Amino acid sequence: MPDRGGGPSGPRIRVGRPSRRARTLLTTLGVLAVLAMAFVMFAGFWTDWLWFRSVHYSSVFTTTLWTKVGLFSVFGLLMALAVGFNIWLAHRLRPPLSAMSLEQQSLDRYRMGVAPYKKWLLAAIAALVGLIAGASAAGQWRAWLMYVNGVPFGKKDPQFGLDVSFYAFELPWYRFLLGFGFAAVVLSLIAAAIVHYLYGGLRLTSPGARATAAATGHLSVLLGVFVSLKAVAYWLDRYGLAVKSSDFKAADNWTGLRYVDANAYLPAKTILFCIAAICAALFFATLWRRTWQLPVIGFGLMVLSAILIGGLYPAIVQKFQVQPNEQAKEAPYVDKNIQATREAYGIDTTEVTDYSGQPNTTDKNKLRQEANTTASIRLLDPNIVSPAFQQLQQNKGYYGFPSTLAVDRYKAQDTVIGLRELNLGGIPKNNWINDHFRYTHGFGAVAAKGTEVTSDGAPVFTESGLPAKGRLGPYEQRIYYGEETKQYSIVGGPQLELDYADDKGEKETRYEGRSGVSLDNAFNRAAYSLAFSEPQILYSGAIGEGSRILYHRTPKERVEAVAPWLTIDGAAYPAVVDHRIQWIVDAYTTTNGYPYASRTTLGESTTDSLTNSRRAVVAQENRVNYIRNSVKATVDAYDGTVRLYQWDTQDPVLKTWMKAFPDTVKAKGEIPKALLDHLRYPQDLFKVQRELLTRYHVKDPQTFLSGSEVWSVPKDPTTKDTAVPPYYLSMKMPGQQSQDFSLTTTFTPNGRDNLSAFMAVNADPGTGDYGKIRVLKLPTANPVDGPKLVQAKFNSKPDIAQEINILSRGDSQVEYGNLLTVPLSGGMLYVEPVYVRGGGLKYPLLKKVLVTYGNETAFENTLEKALNVVFGAEAPTTGNNPPGTTTKPPTQNATVKQALADAAKAMEDADRALKAGDWAAYGKAQDELKAALERAQAAEAKTGQPTPNASVSAGATPPPGG
Question: CA 360 → CA 367, 826, 827, distances in Å?
Answer without folding.
Answer: 10, 5, 7
